[in-house]
């Protein structure tokens, strides 16, 4: 029988209730997150399977493809699925695969229209500023997101790749519903940002939640804990994130049905206090 998402729930912005274990749709594109995947129908199927397994929170961005991930989500999802889709703006791509920060307010206002069309929605559930742009004052970019919320184009605003200081600055201008930073059991540089999110009741979306398998120094401990649960290291990395804080919303990304099953099943793994401490 297929895995079922047994994670508990979190209310994004106090009102969008989602299961905490979500899905990251960055990897349903071509190589290096550019262009189309080899099997578009298969990519749509993966998203549908995730929803069947009870995943109701999916992360994407205009820059994934660019455009491809959003377009495939638009094809895979219907309003009846009741899935909260979080997308992002603020990074340009080129054919070399570079990621170029671009927080110009006019550009952000353009991108929300494009993302609405590709996702097939009138209002974007959660719109995240992908990465601060050194060439645009951070507050100018944030104000563009705030205005899009005021104007009803987006329900909630999130940030990504920010410091605590930038989070505080943004909160002066808009209600911040989520922060999405790189964070996993092996890389915890942004523990202070996670703690700020806990303090404010903001969702923390740890990207790279399984470090794509590069689990460094904790790899051996993860393997030992995994063995005792007849699980994989990737699954224990996800179980640890869910245990570590009530506000984490991991979005493991995969283009493999077997990995999707494993990742969803990880929400059902209960770590003992000893196992959790061993990984801390
Ligand atoms: N805000 C940002 O700046 C930012 C940056 C990067 C990513 N993100 C978001 O975060 C999401 C997740 O990040 P990520 O994809 O970089 O990292 P990740 O979820 O930690 O790792 C994904 C990688 O691990 C593999 N994998 C997935 N499940 C596995 C399993 N059970 N066993 C073994 N390998 C497995 C995948 O390959 P297979 O396809 O073969 O399964 C893929 O190569 C993305 O989809 C995106 O939505 C955001």
TrEMBL record:
It comes from Halovenus aranensis. GO terms for cellular component: cytoplasm. The lineage of its organism: Archaea, Methanobacteriati, Methanobacteriota, Stenosarchaea group, Halobacteria. Pfam families: Aldo_ket_red. Keywords: Oxidoreductase. GO terms for molecular function: oxidoreductase activity. Residues 20-279 form the NADP-dependent oxidoreductase domain. InterPro entries: AKR, Aldo-Keto_reductase, NAD(P)_OxRdtase_dom_sf, NADP_OxRdtase_dom. This is NADP-dependent oxidoreductase domain-containing protein. It comes from the Archaea. The keyword DNA-binding does not apply.
């Amino acid at each position: 029988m297929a895995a079922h998402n047994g994670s508990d729930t979190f209310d994004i912005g106090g009102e969008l209730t989602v299961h905490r274990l979500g899905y990251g749709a960055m990897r349903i594109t071509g190589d290096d997150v550019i262009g189309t995947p080899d099997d578009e129908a298969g990519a749509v199927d993966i998203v549908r399977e995730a929803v069947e397994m009870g995943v109701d929170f999916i992360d994407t961005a205009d820059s994934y493809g660019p455009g491809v991930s959003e377009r495939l989500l638009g094809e895979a999802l219907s309003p009846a699925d009741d899935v909260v889709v979080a997308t992002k703006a603020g990074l340009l791509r080129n054919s070399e695969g570079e990621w170029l920060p671009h927080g110009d307010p006019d550009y952000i206002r353009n991108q929300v229209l494009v993302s609405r069309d590709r996702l097939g929605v009138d209002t974007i559930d959660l719109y995240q500023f992908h990465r601060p742009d050194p060439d645009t004052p951070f507050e100018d970019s944030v104000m563009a997101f705030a205005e899009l919320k005021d104007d009803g184009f987006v329900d909630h605003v999130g940030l990504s790749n920010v410091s605590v200081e930038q989070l505080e600055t943004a909160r002066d201008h808009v209600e911040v519903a989520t922060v999405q930073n790189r964070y996993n059991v092996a890389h915890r540089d942004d523990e202070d940002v996670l703690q700020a999110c806990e303090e404010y009741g903001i969702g923390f979306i740890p990207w790279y939640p399984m470090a794509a398998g590069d689990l460094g120094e904790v790899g051996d401990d993860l393997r030992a804990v995994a063995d005792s649960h007849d699980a994989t290291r990737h699954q224990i990395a996800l179980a640890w994130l869910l245990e570590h804080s009530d506000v984490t919303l991991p979005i493991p990304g995969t283009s493999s049905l077997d990995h999707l099953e494993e990742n969803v099943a990880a929400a059902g793994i209960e770590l003992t206090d000893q196992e959790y401490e061993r990984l801390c």
